[in-house]
Amino acid sequence: MNKQELRQVFLQKRKAAAPELRHRWSQQIEAYVMEYIEKQKVRCVMVYAAFRDEVETEGIIRKLLAGGICVALPRCYEKGKMSAYQIQNFDELVPGRFGILEPPEEHLIEPAAFDLVLVPGCGFGRDGSRLGYGGGFYDRYLPGCKGARVIGLGYELSIADAFPIEAFDVLMDAVITENGVMNKV
Hints:
With 185 residues, the chain is an alpha/beta fold. It has helices spanning 3-16, 19-40, 58-66, 137-141; strands spanning 44-46, 70-76, 82-87, 94-95, 101-102, 108-109, 116-119, 123-125, 130-131, 149-153, 159-160, 174-177, 180-183. It has an 8-stranded mixed β-sheet with strand order 6-3-2-1-7-10-12-13. It has a 3-stranded mixed β-sheet with strand order 9-8-11, with helices on one face. Strand 4 (94-95) and strand 5 (101-102) form a beta hairpin. Helix 2 (19-40) packs parallel to helix 3.
């Protein structure tokens, strides 16, 4: 199967899971993320605003802000470009391109400032591969996040042994599912 066909399969698997089940899994993933952040003494995090049936991130964002951690979210632009802007409050986010919640363009955070980047995806491989949504936004942005750990957030049903990798694809350092932290093999 090519990437587009794989996307359809994995998005359908995710959509088929009951919303209350995805919510419970998201809460478990949130607990693992917060435990990881506490252990690693993370100071600056880029996290996405969940869209549709992705792993929920509002609770993570609110807890990080309450804990005094620098939190930035991406804004998407044309041609697969994105930048990250710091927020002080979850309620600053407004629907942007594609209907995804985005921060105001006020406090730009350079990619190299992040300790941790939490990444969405259609699927994740045990080898660190990521099946994105096809826009290339993260694959263009992540190479600038030199000192950051890059961690995918996905449900266990989004995990495969591997996905096709192209030269520009960025591998995840780990993936967090409702079953815990999975480092690449």
